Amino acid sequence: MAEFLTLAEAARRIATRDLSPVELLQDCLARVDAVDDRLCSFVTLTRERALAEAKSAEAEIMAGRHRGPLHGIPYNLKDIFETKGIRTTAQSKQLADYVPDADCDAQERLAAAGGVLLGKAATWEFAHGGPSWDVLFPPCRNPWDLDKDPAGSSSGSGASVAAGMVLATMGSDTGGSIRGPAAACGIAGLKPTYGRVSRRGVLPNCFSHDHAGPLAWTVEDVAILMNVVAGFDPRDPGCADVPVPDYTAALTGDVRGLRIGVPYKWIEEEVPASAVTRAALDAALDAYKSMGAEVVPVELPPLAQYDDSKKIIAIAELFSIHAEDLRRRPALFGDSLRFRIIAGGLVRAEDYVQAMRLRTVLAQRMQAVLRTVDVLMLPTGEPAKTLQPVPPETLFTKSSYTTAFNVGGNPALSLCMGFTGEGMPLSLQVVGRLFDEATVLRVGDAYERAMPWRQRRPALVS
Amino acid sequence: MEETTAEELRVLAIQAGMGDLPQQHLEELRLAWEHVRAMAARIPKDRPRGDEPAHVFVPTTFAREG
């Protein structure tokens, strides 16, 4: 197969006319044709449309009208991002025939930047219930080992980038759904600050915690995507009118003087990290120290409090979104999603409001700690496990390292932190101050440059 | 915490507009509800009267054009 290119490398070669967008697309399509019947990362492939867009991009560039680094770059969108004229199913039988009549904000921005939409990526049902074998499409698999879980819910986004089928993608994250698949698939994924990237046209999971954000092979690629998708959208009521910096300009490679906080209590006592994950985290922290950063312990409220607050709020909002379908045609939901939302109808208004009041306290505590350090660091999660049905109640009983930052609204990046002895990716999470994605990306990029992890691709496509 | 009885669950389901749920889904509701009830019980409730929830009405959102 053709060599793998990062988004940044492909963009540079396209800009200098050393690479044709049509050739690049054909390389991506060759990988799709070779492996996606086993990987199941796409639920809809827009081959003809993509070819037309790639040819159009090539013609524009040859005529001297180069739009920027996304021009001619193949990408896909998680199948909860509405796309005009292309079905958007949320992986659910409830929406098997839903074809939106308008594009979401992210698609508008990516299309205007000259990107080439190759299709829609697999997700968990409505980005919440999964993995599932009883919904509209089979679950996506992990390109590093097809028996392993790519995590959810932006499963197809993570897997398709890792397998080199697209160079960019957009996912959503309500409790970890960008960072989890990025971690399991060994790529970079950023949950931006709440309100930094518009969610207009993204089917909701839980309004108060939903974030849209990019995934790509490298942190630099994520920064390029953020330059396109970040920005105020008055038609998203949660979107923030805050100036957007040039994220690629922030990638200096310099972390001297950086103060890194590590919530050791979370990873040692509350949800103990495995030995392999802890060893990789310690090695990553040592790498930062050798680059001139300082590492200090920090103490945050218990993970379980963040989880309780988020899950009570989420299940009430989820029920409100799906109530009529639950009443009229509950069997059209997969078992996993239905179990995870059905009790939301029984949550009392008092419990919802008290959970929202707790969120205020927890978010304030998070920002207070982040005033004492520049970033937090911890694992995103454990390496991918076997893909198999998960008891749906685990959503209620297990805490993660990711949900707290949906509660706080803070930007949180997952990037590759090496590999296990079995060749599965390990993951590092970098969390920043509100609207300071630039620092988070700078810190992640500096590590990525210093480590060899970006030189390895899944054997499936190598 | 005592388990919700079948009769209590039936009343709660009716109040939520799910009085017609098939039996298999009622059983799912019962199992899920026990987890959710436990989470809700752990949320502190002894707050000062003036404590605002995390999202309140933000009028500037509605003053925007769009």
List the helices and strands and how they pair.
The complex is a heterodimer of chains A (462) and B (66).
Chain A: H1 7-15, H2 21-39, E1 42-45, H3 47-62, E2 74-78, H4 105-112, E3 116-121, H5 155-162, E4 168-173, H6 179-184, E5 188-191, E6 211-216, H7 219-229, E7 259-262, H8 264-270, H9 275-290, E8 294-297, H10 303-328, H11 335-341, H12 349-370, E9 375-379, H13 394-397, H14 403-408, E10 412-419, E11 425-431, H15 437-450
Parallel strand pairs in A: 2-3, 2-4, 7-8, 7-9
Antiparallel strand pairs in A: 1-3, 4-6, 5-6, 5-10, 9-11, 10-11
Chain B: H1 6-15, H2 23-42, H3 59-63
InterPro entries (chain B): RhoGAP_dom
Region (Disordered) (chain B): 44-66
Domain Rho-GAP (chain B): 1-66
Kindly describe this structure.
Chain A has a domain at 7-254 and 379-385 and 411-461: Amidase signature (AS) enzymes. Chain A is built from 15 helices and eleven strands. Chain A has helices at 7-15, 21-39, 47-62, 105-112, 155-162, 179-184, 219-229, 264-270, 275-290, 303-328, 335-341, 349-370, 394-397, 403-408, 437-450; strands spanning 42-45, 74-78, 116-121, 168-173, 188-191, 211-216, 259-262, 294-297, 375-379, 412-419, 425-431. In chain A, β2 (74-78), α4 (105-112) and β3 form a beta-alpha-beta unit. Chain A is globular and about 60 Å long. The model of chain A has no long low-confidence stretch (mean pLDDT 97). With 66 residues, chain B is an all-alpha fold. Chain B has a domain at 1-44. Helices cover 53% and strands 0% of the residues of chain B. The radius of gyration of chain B is 18 Å and the shape is flat. Classes of the chains: A alpha/beta (462), B mainly alpha (66). The A-B interface holds A 208, 233-235, 237, 304, 308-309, 311-312, 315, 319, 323, 326-327, 330-331, 335, 338-340, 342-348, 350-351, 353-360, 363, 392-393, 396-397 and B 12-13, 15-18, 20-22, 25, 28-29, 31-33, 35-40, 42-45, 47, 51-55, 61, 64-66.
